[in-house]
Amino acid sequence: MEIRKATAEDLPQLAGLFDQYRVFYRKASDRQGAEIFLKERLLATESVIYVAVMENVLVGFTQLYPLFSSIRLKRIWLLNDLFVAPACRGKGISKSLIDAAKQWAKSTHSAGILLETEKTNSLANRLYPSAGFIPYDQTNFYFWNNPE
Fold it and tell me: Across the beta sheet with 48-54, what order do the strands follow?
């Protein structure tokens, strides 16, 4: 298995994985929309995407977005997406993708990585603590949902 940064050449396969990821979170399948969204992120360098590759097939990915901490005077990375194809789970791919994200955070001298997952996602809620993430309960997390 190889973990590397995604390139434009990965878009067709990556869009398929990204679409599966969105369906997992109860969104309607939209492979074309997934490819357009990812292409925009890559071309504008608005995110960093790592992919897991086995025998020239993409089997997983993680996507990080930059945020900034005024208090810390540093960048923070938001690990917004992490997905491994169901047939490839249980092989350490998620941890390898997280390790790549951690290395990226270190190489960019960031303050760390922020992530969230649903309380009902039992796999993720076991994975993240085992990868060194700790629940952060010092602040309240709020979200404003744009009614548009």
Answer: 2-5, 48-54, 57-69, 74-84, 112-115
Number of domain units in the chain: 1
pLDDT digits 0-9 by tens, 40-96 = 999 999 999 999 999 999 999 999 999 999 999 999 999 999 999 999 999 999 999
Secondary structure class of 128 (helix, strand, coil) = helix
CA dihedral 31, 145, 122, 114 (to 10 degrees): 90
Q: Is the dihedral of CA 120, 123, 124, 126 positive or negative?
A: positive
Inside any domain, residue 139:
no
Instruction: Write down the pTM of the prediction.
Output: 0.91
